[in-house]
Amino acid sequence: MGTFASGFPNVVGPNITFLGQLLGALVMVAIGFFPGNAVAYVLKKMNALRIPEEVEKIGIDVAKFPGSPYPEEHRGQGYSVRKNL
Fold first, then answer.
1. Domain-embedded: residue 81
2. Is residue 23 situated within a structural domain?
3. From the CA atom positions of the chain, what is the Rg in Å?
4. pLDDT (tens digit, 9 = 90+) per residue, 37-62?
5. Does 82 map to a domain?
6. For residues 33-66, b (16+ Cβ closer than 10 Å) or e, as one string?
């Protein structure tokens, strides 16, 4: 029924209205979206959302997981070993 369930009775509370659902959506935005963006903004200003420049150059997957997920003999055509920059 979702958003257009206006007028249907609720089992234990007041009737469902479109205005009530809209208000609930606005409350969820207010307590979820805005604080999340505030935390992201603070982390950005602290430069805590970036990885170090040397890790950017070699790739975060190589830096965090230096091993290969596949054995040497199972690599396909065109495979080349990537050199660290």
1. no
2. yes
3. 25
4. 999 999 999 988 888 888 888 777 77
5. no
6. eeeeeeeeeeeeeeeeeeeeeeeeeeeeeeeeee
